[in-house]
Amino acid sequence: MTDAAQRPAPDHLSAERRTPDPIPLGTAPRPADGADLAARIRAALAEELGGTAVGLDRASITTVLDGASVASADIDLSGVVVRTDGVPGPADPDKRWRPEIVRREPGTLRRLRLDAHRIVAVDLPVDVTAELEGLRFEWVESSDGRVGVLPVEPTQEHPVSGHARVAVDKAGLVATARGLLTVVLQQQGITLTGLDVDLVSEGPRAATLRVDAAIKKGMFLSARVQATASVSVDANMVLAVRDVRLASGNPLVAALLGTIRGRVEAATSRDIDLAEKLPAGVRLADVRLDVGQELVASARLA
Q: Basic and acidic residues bias located where (predicted)?
């Protein structure tokens, strides 16, 4: 069997990839030293996240320049809180910086290290560690006198290597899911009165999900709904969701679940080739899913 991670992406996927927007970094010329670049990165993060990020001023950002390249960039976002409670959000995508470029200069970010121990997103503490090497980019100057960086997609001749790890507390994840599901169901006139979620490891790249929810609608309809599914990533980096089951002891709710069962099965029957979605220069060597007190997803790039 051909290793899916070594197959080039189909033409239709390449065509669908949107060319990235350049990231604005202030007034030209480009930064002259690491301290200047670090300050501009902090300002760019603040602009991108809008008022949703609290504590960004305390983030640690250190960069080392080597001519047009960046020898290293270390970004530690530990303690940053990303809020969603009505504060001004990120900039409108339609208003992003899309300059008339008058000058380009190639560069390479040789090593990028990102840490967040922890960052809070939508009330959920998330622990993140990532390190990437060989990220190419271009310094671009615009006709309006601004400078920025334009990411360059990796290729087989210029691959990216590294690793990433994301961990969330399982109890915290359940609490966040309960809050989001409560809001969604309320919009349908349904009250969520109970939710129990269990995720059990079935190996280094597989897990079983079990959900038991108690719902109420109006004065007379109350029921429990059970859902189970298995999730796995095989050696070819193909993500599969299987054995999805929906059930309820309430005959009326069970009948309603039966009407959507076909759509659920159709949606989960399509496997996702994780490697196929990546540029040619990004090759997934391994993906792991570990379940304990924390849910930990990790990936290694070849």
A: 9-20
